[in-house]
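Good morning C.,

I know you're traveling, so I'll keep this short. The sequence:
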Amino acid sequence: MSSLPFKLVYHPGYDLNLGPHVFPSQKFRLLHELLLCEGIASPGDVLRPQRVCDEDLLRVHTAEWVGKLRHGTLSHAEVMKLEVPYSPELAEAVWLSSGGTILAAEYALRDGFASNLGGGFHHAHANHGEGFCAINDVAVAVRSLQSRGAISRAIVVDTDVHHGNGTAHIFRGDTSVFTLSIHQQNNYPAYKPPSTLDLGLDDGVEDEEYLGVLLPAVENALNAFAPEILFYVGGADPYADDQLGGLRLSKSGLKARDKGVFLLARERGIPVVTTLAGGYARRVEDTIRIHANTIVAAGEVLRELPSRSGAASA
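The tokens, ready to paste straight into the viewer:
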């Protein structure tokens, strides 16, 4: 019997194969192992994705950029902007991660919730990569669902400590996709193209203030926009001991963040698909625990509200 009331998506190929790097690419494997080891999930809960097809990639990314990633022909400047070394394993990982976010979205529409144990590469633009992100898997999944008529309107709630600049730029001017980014204002990236709603926070914000800004904004957005699916970019990097962040959230505060957003969506019958995004705690175990708590929070919400209500239907 499954341990979770929803599906997880994972592939061993998610590891970006970076070696020693501030981005802990082993976290995908470690998260999967922890969820199974602690009985939070069972093997039957886990789906294995296929690589995203070119047709879906090209709904978001330029043919030139996709070709460079496939053949390893990035310029030195493009690799520097990407901030991770190129390898065939990296290309395979982002192709699989995008396939994983599409698969999770399909199951979210069916079951009300699903989680990709990877993805959230929100700095990737249509024609280049940035900040460890080569392919914008959330944007690819949104466009894939829209192209098939599975949804018309989607909302992206991005809680990474860094602004979701790639997602904002890809969906600029598109009234079918609501982009919400809550982030540390004085942090990467320097240029932040406007999301539909940006919640730029001062340095050092803690749990209470963060939740007081985020949850009312999400509630208002869901009520006004009435999306048919919510893509949740669940960054672990607002954590107080994160190396690349300057906010001061606790692990319990981050779990309350996740649970609060999930409850708001669940109460309105809006399916939710989660991806991981960033997490650079000094102890990788802390990053893994924060990501695992996102799954735990989702399980708690679905057990508290087992039947979906509202406008959306699977």
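Safe travels,
E.
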